[in-house]
Amino acid sequence: MSTSIDKAEVIVTSPDRNFVTLKITTADGLTGLGDATLNGRELAVVAYLQEHVVPLLIGSDASRIEDTWQFLYRSAYWRRGPVTMASIAAVDMALWDIKGKEAGMPVYQLLGGASRNGLMAYGHASGKELPELFDSIRAHQEQGYRAIRVQTGVPTLKAIYGIAAQGADVGDASVRYDHEPARRGAKPVEEDWDTRAYLNHLPGVFEAVRNEFGPDVPLLHDGHHRMTPIQAARLGKDLEPYDLFWLEDCTPAENQEALRLVRQHTTTPLAIGEIFNTIWDFKDLIRDQQIDYVRGAVTHMGGISPLKKTLDYAAMYQVKSGMHGPTDISPVGMAAAMHLGLSIHNFGIQEYMRHGAKTDRVFEQSFTWTDGYLHPGEKPGLGVELNVDEAGKYPYEQAYLPYNRLLDGTVHDW
């Protein structure tokens, strides 16, 4: 059976949002898909793939996944970064997809087989005020979610990250804000921020949620990089009575020493890394046990191969996975995360935000969602196929994530 790569196509489609997909075809007709979506910078990855990566793939051996990964990472000399790593990730995923199809097995079997029956996932509840938030939590529980991320509006702030109901206030009213925060248009939407107001408001919200829903529901919260280290330490400490499953991205992750300060002041578990690109971003945080969950995404960490290595390293320190999984990870990237999560021993939880109906028609998926647990399914490979005709109905539309300004007009972390 010939496994040489005969063709590699970069497909851009925008059903519910923009997605970048790499489709590799071998000389014997096997196909594999990889997700290369980089929210708000999709075309940069398209150019990197089309102009630099695809020409290097033609004629190479599709079975040599590790060798191809090392070649693409090391031969460019300019390493790392989201554009490079999303491009390499797409190749890695597509080659694992092909290898699974060639073997007649789902990818998780090639990674060592299942370590569990399914993957517990968390949903994204939000509300400007408590009644709306409570309704959102109940709605997610009715959908089967056992763990809930809680995001809340803050008095005096018009629009902040993660609040679904404010979609009608800023941008396309037909799109749920937590479904896709990137707004289509020529420039990003401006939102406002006040850290002091947020820190004062949030503990009361979690107290109300615990009083309403009891002590047993795993609750999560995303700080989205907006606090200084000492502010994050205060929040972690203030939230301790409400027993969070984790506090995510409490401070900008580039400053890894910041997590040491946060850790010194709170026992609230910490999750970090959705904007990380390689194991080098995580290495010291894991070794020094400054975090509890690795938030890396298969799509942005260079693929299944390097993220598995990162999580194997994390397992030595009892650090678990919490892979990134919003709707700017395509169904292909989500499937890759599910296969990896099912196989590793130190799985923690999987972020799962449901894609829209148009996206589900473009990407035909085999995964299941049952009683709060995900499973990638038993189809050979990743279990996702691209409907090219359907994808062609939705051309690329320019879109940007929002950005923040403080009350005095200073640009702040979003």
UniProtKB/TrEMBL annotation:
Molecular functions per Gene Ontology: hydro-lyase activity; magnesium ion binding
Database matches in Pfam families: MR_MLE_C (PF13378), MR_MLE_N (PF02746)
Superkingdom of the organism of origin: Bacteria
Mandelate racemase/muconate lactonizing enzyme C-terminal domain boundaries: 130-269
GO annotation, biological process: carbohydrate catabolic process
Protein name: D-galactonate dehydratase family protein
